[in-house]
Amino acid sequence: MVKTYSSSEIRIQIKDFELLEVSSGKKKSLKDFFSKKATVIMFICNHCPYVKHINMELIRLANDFIPEKISFLAINSNDAKKYPEDSPENMKKVYNQLGYPFPYFFDETQEVAKYYKAKCTPEFFIFSGNGNLCYHGQLDDSRPGNDIPVTGFDLRNVLQNILEEKKIYPIVKLSFGCNIKWKT
Known about the structure:
CATH class: Alpha Beta
Shape: globular
CATH superfamily: Glutaredoxin
């Protein structure tokens, strides 16, 4: 595990890609899951201890905001040949075991991670309904072993402001976790 910070370089527009959605086993267009209110794109994976640390909060967060018409999409961009725990088959197992309420996509070519300049897991992007970036970075200040409770504070705060229709300027609050496992 290599501790890696998210990029301070950001893409300010959401973009559509077609990826394997692991619960159905079919390629699907990401835009079919975008919301007119807000869309949260999460770069996660199965094996990262930083992701395992926050998995239950990701589920709570999504369950709290999906009824408010905010969508959540999880993307795994890791090289599954070098990290078989992150294969689509194992992603489907984790999806079912944890009961993710959001789609979980496999970015086999890593083009999505490259477009968003994602560098680590977990790493989060929130886009407004018109596709503009509102937030890029961490879930909250909690990390494995630092004794800070996992609350999703940073994401919850931005999402609540969106629901309250407050003006939001793009916020960057660096995340850190495992590096994305790039193909060589």
